[in-house]
Write a structure and sequence with these properties.
By secondary structure, the chain is of the alpha/beta class. It is 45% helix and 20% strand. The protein has nine helices and eleven strands. Helix 6 links the parallel strand 7 and strand 8. The longest helix has 22 residues. The radius of gyration is 17 Å and the shape is globular.
Length: 253
C-alpha cells in the first residue's frame, strides 16, 4: 500500500498510569463498546487512532478515511477500515451503525484548498457525519474544533467551526464533547511558510501566556480519548479548552 498512511504505536506514545487505569475501568464498566474515527489520516486523527488502539478499551476501532492506513502496534486485529464518502448520508449511517462512540477530527484549511473546499469539509461533511452518527445511535460524539470558534464571528474559519459546534450540541446526543485546541504543534509534512514561522514564535508566547497559544496534537488526542473514559451522568454537552486539555495531561504524568 504505497499510498497508505502509516500509523505506528511505539514507546514514544505517552499515556500515563491514570489514562491506562481509566481505560481499564471503562472497559470493565462498559464492555462491548466500539469507536469510529473521522479524519483519521489528519494530524489529530492519527493520534486519536494511536491512543484508542493503545488503550485496548474498545472491542473495535473503525477508521473512515479516503486513504488506507497501514497500522503497526497493539490490538491490530481490532482496527477496521472503511472508505469515506461524506456526501452519501445513507452510506454514512450504515458506516456508523453498531458504533457507540465517534471521534470527529475532520478539517482542512482555506489556504490549502480554497474557501469553497474548506467550507465543504469543515461544515458540510462535518455535519453530514454528525447527523449520520445521531441517526445510527452513537452514544458519545467527540468533535475536535478550534480555539476561538464562534458562530457569530466575522472570520470564516472561526464562524464555520462555531456553527458546527452549535449544531452538533443541539442534535441531542446523549453525550457530546467539543474540544477547542489552539495552534496545533506537530511534525507536519506539508507545513507552509507561515506555519513554520509560527512554530518558532508561538512557544515563546506560550511561555508568557501558558496554556493559551499552542498544544501538541498528541495531547489533544490524549484528552479526547481520556475524556471518553470518564463516568458521567447523561445527557451532557461539554466544552474543553486548550488549557484544560494541557492541565489534565500534565496532571496525569
Amino acid at each position: 500500500m504505497s499510498d497508505a498512511m502509516k500509523i505506528v504505536v511505539d514507546d514514544k506514545l505517552v499515556l500515563g498510569e491514570p489514562f491506562t487505569k481509566a481505560a481499564s475501568e471503562f472497559k470493565a464498566r462498559s464492555p462491548g463498546k466500539s469507536a469510529l474515527v473521522l479524519g483519521s489520516t489528519g494530524e489529530v486523527g492519527r493520534e486519536v487512532v494511536k491512543h484508542l488502539m493503545a488503550s485496548d478499551a474498545f472491542d473495535k476501532v473503525t477508521v473512515l478515511a479516503r486513504r488506507p492506513i497501514e497500522y503497526t502496534g497493539p490490538n491490530a486485529e481490532k482496527l477496521k477500515q472503511k472508505p469515506a464518502d461524506f456526501e452519501n448520508t445513507e452510506q454514512l449511517e450504515r458506516d456508523f451503525a453498531g458504533h457507540t462512540h465517534a471521534f470527529s477530527c475532520l478539517g482542512t484549511t482555506r489556504a490549502k484548498n480554497g474557501k469553497d473546499a474548506f467550507y465543504k469539509v469543515d461544515h458540510d461533511y462535518a455535519l453530514n457525519a454528525a447527523k449520520a452518527a445521531k441517526t445510527a445511535g452513537v452514544e458519545h460524539y467527540s468533535n475536535c474544533s478550534s480555539n476561538g470558534a464562534d458562530k457569530n464571528s466575522m472570520f470564516l474559519y472561526m464562524k464555520t467551526k462555531g456553527e458546527v459546534d452549535s449544531e452538533i450540541q443541539d442534535m441531542g446526543f446523549p453525550r457530546v464533547s467539543i474540544f477547542h485546541p489552539s495552534m496545533l504543534m506537530c511534525d507536519r509534512k506539508e507545513a507552509r511558510l507561515m506555519e513554520r514561522a509560527a512554530s518558532y514564535v508561538m512557544p515563546l508566547l506560550d511561555y508568557v501566556m501558558p496554556g493559551k497559544m499552542t498544544i501538541p496534537t498528541s495531547t489533544v488526542a490524549w484528552a479526547m480519548v481520556n475524556n471518553t473514559f470518564k463516568k458521567v451522568d447523561t445527557p451532557v454537552a461539554e466544552l474543553l479548552t486548550n488549557k484544560q486539555m494541557l492541565d489534565e495531561f500534565k496532571k496525569s504524568q
